[in-house]
């Protein structure tokens, strides 16, 4: 009887091989859970370095005595929307004042009030002051005998520098950087947040959603955001789906590598154990 036959027969008879595999699987599961929790808390600690506990008030454009401007903006927007179904090229130019007035006046944009305000537009980027709520470290709060898991509130208060692009049926912001006074924002956080899908919530809006879907280009020119539709031109997505999923892809790749290394280690331990038992069986 050769050595491979002895090892095979001994492994089949021994319950310890199965126990080793079960223990290894449990260790892998515990390791992945622990690694995920550790990564999550490290991320929370990094976020806490450049975020605040309280929001910073963001100016909302006053609508007092602005009826004429609001009506003029509404007429321009409606004219553009109607021309989107035409056969001629059409565009809508929106200045920083136009965007801030729209946020203050139009009901669909109410969630941006007090959290996002455009300060300037150049030929490369939009500059906006922001105060975005973020989730901090999770914590257990007790109410009587029961408890619920909540998270500390954190706020990203600073300036967002970004360029608008098309992504399928929506306008997204490709982040160049986020500036927080006196603090450094981790590049990994900016990369994870970009592209910022600021208009995702409007995809199902009966007016805004279909209008965005008809755009073929979004540009910055002369201190304005240019929304353009050119018949016969296919919209180019400068932001790809791979870029949208890159942050989660990096996390899963890291977890996959860690799991593979741990499984390889566990497999070696099991193999060593099985071979040791086989040798012991041959040489009692």
TrEMBL record:
Organism per entry: Luteolibacter yonseiensis
UniProt KW Transmembrane keyword: yes
Superkingdom as given in the UniProt entry: Bacteria
Keyword Transmembrane helix: yes
Regions annotated as coiled coil: 63-90
Keyword terms, alphabetized: Coiled coil, Membrane, Transmembrane, Transmembrane helix
Name the record gives this protein: Uncharacterized protein
Lineage start: Bacteria, Pseudomonadati, Verrucomicrobiota, Verrucomicrobiia, Verrucomicrobiales
Transmembrane regions listed in the UniProt entry: 20-41, 255-274
């Amino acid at each position: 009887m050769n050595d491979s036959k002895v090892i095979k027969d001994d492994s089949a008879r021994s319950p310890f091989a199965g126990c080793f595999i079960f223990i290894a699987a449990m260790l892998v599961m515990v390791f992945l859970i622990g690694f995920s929790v550790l990564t999550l808390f490290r991320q929370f600690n990094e976020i806490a370095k450049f975020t605040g506990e309280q929001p910073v008030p963001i100016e909302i454009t006053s609508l007092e005595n602005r009826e004429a401007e609001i009506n003029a903006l509404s007429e321009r927007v409606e004219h553009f929307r109607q021309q989107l179904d035409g056969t001629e090229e059409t565009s809508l130019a929106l200045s920083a004042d136009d965007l801030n007035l729209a946020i203050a006046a139009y009901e669909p944009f109410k969630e941006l009030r007090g959290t996002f305000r455009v300060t300037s537009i150049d030929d490369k980027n939009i500059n906006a002051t922001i105060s975005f709520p973020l989730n901090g470290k999770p914590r257990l709060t007790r109410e009587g005998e029961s408890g619920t898991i909540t998270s500390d509130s954190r706020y990203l208060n600073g300036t967002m520098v970004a360029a608008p692009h098309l992504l399928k049926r929506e306008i997204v912001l490709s982040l160049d950087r986020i500036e927080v006074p006196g603090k450094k924002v981790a590049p990994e956080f900016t990369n994870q947040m970009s592209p910022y899908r600021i208009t995702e919530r409007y995809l199902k809006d009966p007016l805004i959603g279909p209008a965005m879907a008809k755009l073929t280009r979004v540009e910055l020119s002369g201190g304005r955001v240019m929304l353009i539709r050119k018949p016969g031109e296919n919209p180019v997505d400068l932001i790809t789906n791979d870029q949208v999923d890159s942050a989660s892809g990096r996390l899963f790749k890291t977890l996959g590598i860690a799991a593979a290394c741990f499984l390889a280690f566990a497999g070696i331990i099991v193999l060593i154990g099985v071979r040791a038992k086989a040798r012991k069986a041959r040489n009692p």
